[in-house]
Amino acid sequence: MNYSARISEPLLITAFSIAALLAGGASALLPWFLTLAIAFIPIFALFAGAFPHHAIAVAIFLAFGAVPSFMLPQIPFAGGTIRASELFLALITGISAFKVLANPERVKQLQSPFTPGLLLILGLTTLSLTLAATALGNQPKYYLYELRSLLFWLVLPLILLSIDTREKAKTFAIVLAAMGFVLAAGVIIQFVTGMKILEASRVEKLVTTGSIYSDVTRSTAGGGIYFILFLINVTFVLWIKRVMKWYFATPIIAFGAMAVIATFGRGVWAAEACAILLILFLADRGERVKTLAAIASIALVGMTVMYITAPHVANATFDRLTSVGNEIEDGDSYQWRKDENRYAQQAILSNPIVGVGLGGEYQPFRNRNMGEDHTRAIHSSYYGLMLKLGVAGLIIPALMGAIGLATWRRIEKSQAPVWLKATSLATMATVFTAYITSFTQPEWMHHTGVAFFATSFALLAVSDRLRNVPTREE
Fold first, then answer.
1. Which of 41, 101, 257, 369 has the smallest number of Cβ neighbours within 10 A?
2. Is this structure's pTM higher than 0.85?
């Protein structure tokens, strides 16, 4: 059935009428942001009911801070706020649950290779939350704050419920790539102007082992960097599989690469270089040397143009690349992470079953400039999983990664169309980059990282389910 046929004119009129009624009644009693949140609920509910996969994409997009928070509805709760992305996620979950209750046959769509991993996450999170609230005596505002990030694993089953055809899967993959393009544009604009426009980003002067580049701005995208990498990787795979012409692929890859360079994240640079080599090894068996030569030529031209047009940026990039040894010897960032890991090891060894639990402290207060959260937060995802969920938490990335690889191999060996295989390979390669950066970044414990992993694994599961489905569209 055509999507547009699902939304009749009476339903639209009803939704907007309810929104207007709620807004009018709430405006006299509540502040504007609560009025906006309440009024928007029936409109988004109608949208989520008719276009669930698009609604999930909207929630993910908002989670990555692509829209400034002051423009979005937020609801005060338990000393903090419920963000728009969380509000939308809860609404989509409620609508999906209602659909399952109305049609129990839809439960079958929740079956996927990643079900064991999801059950493990659910079990360990429940145990940690229970102990945090009881035996460990952690403060509610802290364990609820850390729990809200893990709730983004709901994205995985929601995508499984909402995508049941190759057409929807293809549309969703295109939307994710488009999201990467928008985030890349945001990073570049921040880099050029020095103005922060992405909510989950950082915009600051570049500092490398104590040297401050006052004329170079470092612009990041938080977890959104992985959707930028997905844009690069899926374009690259489509190019080497000869689905996309080089004159279309090159500008897209170059645009994404500009955004990645602007982050000045050495870990991201190294991880993406490994991902490109992985893609070449897995996908371009016939002409690897020729493809590597093309990549080297494009990179050389790009660096030459950078040295001519922005020599200060080129020098900063080169310095960033070659300062890894100095960072290990003298860098404050490296030393801070090293101390974090040392304190984490002590806490894990003292209670390996559950660690410190959600919201638990593991290190003393060390720096007034870091805020009170630094006694609970840790950069390394793998230490973070063991700290908050116990040693068994480390099984989660190992299990999900193994399932992901096995799922990709089934898709690659199937008779699935080229675009589906390309999307799966690009997804797996991007997940690979996140596994590498997780050694120094809290991707498995932060809501943007969790949202990325859940989306990626869901896309692999959907592709696996649809790999041998005959369709009229192809």
1. 369
2. yes
